[in-house]
Amino acid sequence: MSAMSTGWDFQKLAKAAGLPSQGLPRQPIRDLQTDSRRVCPGSLFIAYRGLQADGHDYIAAAVRAGAVAVVAERTPPEAPNVPLLLVPDGRIAWAHLEAAWHGFPSRELRLAGVTGTDGKTTTTTLLHHILTQCGVPTGLISTVEAHLGQRVVDTGLHTSTPPPSQVQPLLREMVDAGCRAAVLEATSEGLAQRRLEACEFDLAIITNITHDHLYFHRTLESYREAKALLFHYLSAGARKPGVTKTAVLNRDDSSYQYLRAIETDRHLSYGASRADTIIEQARDRAGGLSLALSTPWGRTELDVPLLGQYNAWNVAAALTAACAWGIPLQRAAHACSTFPGVPGRMQFIQEGQPFSVIVDFAHTANALEQALRAVRPITRGRLIVVFGCAGERDVLKRGPMATAAIRLADYAVFTAEDPRREDLDSILAQMESAALAAGGRPGVNYSLVPDRGEAIGHAISEARPGDTVIICGKGHEQSMCFGCEERPWDDRTAARAALRARGHISI
User: Fold this and answer.
1) Would you say 348 and 358 are in contact if contact means Cβ atoms under 8 Å apart?
2) Residue 191 bridge partners (DSSP)
3) Mean pLDDT over each residue of the chain, to the nearest integer
4) Of 270, 272, 282, residue with least CA distance to 317
């Protein structure tokens, strides 16, 4: 329970959240719950239509467990014997209630949001790093971790943007810890499910929009509309003294004109040309990139410890955002040069072996292609890639991912990656069909190894001095889903185990 939550009653809370409050009783509220199993005496139960279940079906159970009031989208067949507030959208109401419960913490921070298909976590984490290094106490919520002043916490297993019941208390903890700004990674599913409603954004960044998550959004248009919600939140959110609402857009992405049409105080763009921040040069070097950027604040040259020329766009986005918030260009550029990277993003695993092993999160066709292109220049020998395609997700990306592997790697190992309730052999067969069509030869330039641990071991056993093994798709994630069960899993741990099993020991 938040320190801001003491003294709430149903009428007062509803009014603070901007919900209809006239006629509601002054019933004291102990906490907010959307899961009837967590309800206790004094709870306010909020019902909405979920992906797997409908909260309205559990209103009676919540009341039996002690809920003293209910917020819902419709009256249940058996009207509860407690006060009921009807709202058009339970998710939106929940977000605003949580924000009110925790004292609207985002109104006390400069708040930046980052969305896009690829590069969200890197851009989010890099912007947080720049601001922190330049003396601005800044919080972070990404799909990897949350930084809350001096405290760092894991944000979950297969984490999308956390729900309002986590986002709002995390923001409150940032404020209480002395943070003056915060950077949030905004996933398309999190946006579509209104988890960031009542977050008062001052800056919004788009990385890119490519085919992904269409299992959820169904169409690319719906996917793009979900991403655009971040920019609508930006334009509609509460204004803070002296803060200009700023959209940072990728001039080279197909989303540019669509997002540019959403009104806000200021639009800034980045890209290879015709942009406010122009990437004049992006050159691979040992251990990272050498960049030259021309910006509205001047020109800068910098070395960044990030592999892959695609990261030039992530750096340009974060640098543009930081300068838009008043960070001097050269200080921001220097901060970029000290960036430690993101766990599970182009992360080298070293156990004394004479070849490179890298773990990366690339799980779309575009990201896989970019990752393979990124490591090719640092590979003297063969490039070996291990990856799978998730079950019950974007079936259409399976062929392009397999094709990219055959075309850009020397050897590919197709394996499991969160098969969920889909048959793994069927997923692998679809990948193999595309591999064969692209010129793949079984046992020569690709293999099917269903068990992911065995697949990683097989790839490492194939590696020779000068080779690179890149393990893609899971990155930082700590579990793998089979059926409806999340089983503990970490690609980095598996890679280290495979290396040690083959006699490689870090000294």
Assistant:
1) yes
2) none
3) 94
4) 270
What's the pTM? 0.88
80-119 pLDDT per residue, tens: 899 999 999 999 999 999 999 999 999 999 999 999 998 9
Is 218 a residue whose pLDDT tops 80?
no
Both tokens assigned to 15: 């009014």
Tokens found for residue 45: 């139960």
Of 444, 407, 442, 410, give the one whose Cα is nearest residue 428.
442
pLDDT tens digits along 407-439: 999 999 999 999 999 999 999 999 999 999 999
pLDDT of 30 strictly over 70: yes
Q: How far is Cα of residue 440 from the mean position of the Cα atoms in its chain?
A: 33
Tens of pLDDT along 117-172? 989 999 999 999 999 999 999 999 998 899 999 899 987 656 678 999 999 999 99
Specify the amino acid at residue 89: D
Cα dihedral: 298, 299, 301, 302 (round 10) = 30
Task: With CA atoms as reference, report the closest residue to 386 among 366, 419, 412.
Answer: 412
Report which of 43, 94, 41 is spatially closest to residue 72, judged by C-alpha positions: 94
Residue 387 parent element (H or E):
strand 383-388
> Which sign, positive or negative, has the C-alpha torsion 212, 217, 222, 223?
negative
Those residues whose C-beta lies under 8 Å from the C-beta of residue 362, and which sit 6 or more positions away, are: 368, 370, 371, 387, 472, 473, 475
Cα angle vertex 345, ends 446, 201, to 5°? 135
Beta strands at 298-304 and 288-295: parallel, antiparallel or unpaired: antiparallel
**Residue 32's closest CA among 65, 71, 60?**
71
Rounded distance between C-alpha atoms, residue 89 and residue 98, angstroms: 14
H or E element: which one contains 413?
A: strand 411-415
Residue 160: the pLDDT is: 76
Task: Give me the pLDDT at residue 212, please.
Answer: 56
Q: Report which residue type is found at 16.
A: A
In sequence order, what are the residues at sequence separation of 6 or more whose Cβ sits closer than 8 angstroms to the Cβ of residue 387?
A: 362, 363, 368, 401, 405, 412, 413, 414, 415, 417, 471, 472, 473
Of 447, 388, 436, the closest CA to residue 412 belongs to: 447
Six-digit token pair at 358?
Answer: 């890298």
Greatest extent of the chain over all pairs of C-alpha atoms, in Å: 75
The full DSSP string for 444-478 is TTEEE--SHHHHHHHHHHH--TT-EEEEES-TT--
Residue with structure tokens 């300068």? 323
